[in-house]
Specification:
By secondary structure, the chain is of the alpha/beta class. The protein folds into two domains: about 240 residues, Type I PLP-dependent aspartate aminotransferase-like (Major domain) (Aspartate Aminotransferase, domain 2), CATH 3.40.640.10; about 130 residues, Alpha-Beta Complex (Aspartate Aminotransferase, domain 1). Helix content is about 40%, strand content about 15%. It has a seven-stranded mixed beta sheet, with helices on both faces. Bound molecules: pyridoxal-5'-phosphate. Pyridoxal-5'-phosphate binds next to helix 3 and helix 4.
Length: about 375
């Protein structure tokens, strides 16, 4: 029997999910209906936040957050260098400048000491990323934000279901960003959410996701008026009811999936404990990671060559390894804005040896053992 391709991540859809979407299709509201508020409430309850604003993807979530925060030309936003480009692009969408901060080498999350050295009187916010699902140093970042009157934005796309000092991820930063892309912990096909305790920010984000119009059709119906005002330049970033129904159904399974991811991470860590020339990320004792990714880092002078051959051999064997991430400022868009290699040396050194291994709740022990064996072969273990 040929072995199935083992992806680094993918969705799990069951009959209850399909039925939930089908029920919406049989009803009156494909979009702007009741499932949107239900999903927002269920998700914000799950993460312990007052408000959830559902949007069409995680990038849109970052964009409405930047709009609601009111960043613009002349402002600086400090962003972790080790992340998906959208975390930084959110500042560029509104004309603000990105200042890249380096990461801690043990967790690859934003380094608060480096952040402190980058703050100027133009700084407006810190965008911290829970890389791979390991929560970043939220208390240290929060105190920097308080000292300098900055907004703390947590790109938590990798970390739903994680905790920091006993509190759920999504309840701590001023704005927490989530994505529901199929490789993430739960999916709505495409989808995103911002959680916050601020009624003003929530209200502004709702306006920006709906063309910048202050009232929705329900409020207009209640007021018996057809008139509406487009008060700001907004977008159509609405998440349809079909997707929200899928999200509600998926959310019920999230705690079990997080447990499964943590079990897989523990198995990898045990298997790699004695491998020389290879390390995994640290999970600090005061937080729990929900492991969106499971990156390993090949170390030493040959790390880039070992990573390249491991990538090639594992792909050839049907194992869908990947690399997350090239430090954002090394993409040509940012290079063309003047950012240079050498800006964040810890992120650059880690990048040379990074490889994301399969990590999703459907991964079997037998498949994981094959992955471990091939990583062992790469480092001669
Ligand atoms: C850290 C991070 N931020 C933002 C995003 C953007 O999310 P989406 O793909 O839903 O736009 C992603 C998704 O890949 C991500 O990993």
């Amino acid at each position: 029997m040929t072995k199935r391709f083992v992806p680094y991540g993918r969705q799990i859809i069951d009959e209850a999910d399909i039925e939930a979407v089908a029920a919406v299709m049989r009803g009156d509201w494909l979009t702007t209906g009741p499932a949107v508020a239900q999903f927002e409430e269920a998700f914000s309850d799950f993460v312990g936040a007052q408000y959830g604003v559902a949007v069409s993807n995680g990038t849109a979530a970052l964009h409405v957050a930047a709009l609601a925060a009111g960043f613009g030309p002349g402002d600086e936003v400090i962003v972790a260098a080790m992340t998906f480009a959208a975390s930084a692009n959110m500042a560029r969408y509104v004309g603000a400048d990105v200042v890249f901060a380096d990461v801690r080498s043990d967790t690859l999350t934003i380094d608060p000491n480096h952040v402190a050295s980058l703050i100027t009187d133009r700084t407006r916010a810190i965008v911290a990323v829970d890389f791979a699902g390991v929560p970043c140093d939220l208390d240290e970042l929060r105190s920097l934000c308080e000292q300098h009157d900055l907004l703390l934005i947590e790109d938590a796309c990798h970390a739903p279901g994680g905790t920091y000092r006993g509190r759920p991820i999504g309840s701590i930063a001023d704005l927490s960003i989530f994505s529901f892309h199929p490789v993430k912990h739960l999916t709505t096909a495409e989808g995103g959410m911002v959680t916050t305790d601020s009624p003003e920010l929530a209200e502004r984000m709702r306006q920006y996701r709906n063309h910048g119009i202050k009232t929705d059709f329900r409020q207009r119906e209640e007021q018996g008026t057809w008139a509406y005002d487009m008060a700001a330049l907004g977008f159509n970033y609405r998440l349809p009811d079909l997707n929200c129904a899928l999200g509600i159904s998926q959310l019920a399974k999230l705690p079990d999936w997080v447990e499964a991811r943590r079990r897989i991470a523990a198995r990898y860590n045990t298997a790699f404990a004695d491998f020389d020339g290879l390390r995994t990320l640290t999970e600090p004792e005061d937080r729990t990671a929900s492991w969106h990714l499971f990156p390993v880092i090949f170390e030493g002078p040959d790390s880039a060559a070992i990573r390249a051959s491991a990538f090639e051999n594992m792909r050839a064997a049907g194992i869908g390894v990947n690399v997350h991430y090239l430090p954002v400022y090394l993409h040509s868009y940012y290079r063309n804005l003047g950012y240079e290699p050498g800006l964040c040396p810890v992120a650059e050194t880690a990048y040379a040896g990074l490889l994301s291994l399969p990590m999703w709740p459907g991964l079997t022990d037998e498949e994981q053992d094959r992955v471990v064996e091939m990583v062992g072969a790469a480092v001669g273990a």
